[in-house]
Amino acid sequence: MEHPLQLLTENTTNGKKVQILLEELQDIYGISWATHLIDLETDEQKKRWFLRLNPNGRIPVLLDVAEDGSVISIFESSAILTYLQEHHDPRNVFGFGSASERSQALQWLFFWHSSGPVQGHTRHFVEGVPEPAPYAARYFQAAMLRIYSVLEAHLSGQHSGHSRQYLAGHGRGKYSIADMGTWPHVRAYLSLGFSEEGDMRPRFPHLLQWIDRIAARPPVQRGVDAGKYDSEENPGLRVRAE
């Protein structure tokens, strides 16, 4: 196989975080991968061949194919980020060598992974329901603001006494999979009915600076480039055959 890493995905927020890490790893190590777009509109992710890879029927899924043909299949975006960092980032550019810093990265990665469904519910009740549900929209927006406040307090140094640039690592922190796993979701606050000037900037200035800091990275820009990933081949039958 030309590319040992095979990414089955779509251009969703969960897909983008894995695309970002792959782009970052390409810049550092020159790794390559093949992207297979899964047709969510036809429920391709619910078909038997896909469920063998991810019983939950969700994207993304990463396949790591060894030289002997054996395949490691990983689902859940946070698990994929962790696997890629552990096995394809030997210099720990996006991870940590010390147990304490690695634990920090996993804590923040899991913090957002558990918060992600709240964002999904917020978006649904703000803009996705056929009939308005004001109470539900307000409830989930309040929950999201609480989550943002946790991130803001951490980045601003409210509890530690010193501000940070990134979520994990000693001192001001280091850009890592903790940031990659969180950023694609948090940057989408406008889709939840929040305004930058009215809701976000007065309350979460450090969080907005963190969003801008990561957005400026070229691999991040490539990772969220819808045109780049929408243009990839969708070789569903070939993936099934493998």
Automatic annotation (TrEMBL):
Superkingdom of origin organism: Eukaryota
Boundaries of every GST C-terminal domain copy: 98-237
Designated name of the protein: Glutathione S-transferase
Record's keyword annotation contains Transferase: yes
Similarity comment: Belongs to the GST superfamily.
Species: Trichoderma citrinoviride
Location of the region described as Disordered in the Swiss-Prot/TrEMBL record: 222-242
Keywords noted in UniProt: Transferase
GO molecular-function term, one example from the UniProt record: transferase activity
One Pfam family hit: GST_C
Every GST N-terminal domain range: 1-92
Claim: Kinase is one of the keywords in the record: no
Cross-referenced InterPro entries: Glutathione-S-Trfase_C-like, Glutathione-S-Trfase_C_sf, Glutathione_S-Trfase, Glutathione_S-Trfase_N, GST_C, Thioredoxin-like_sf
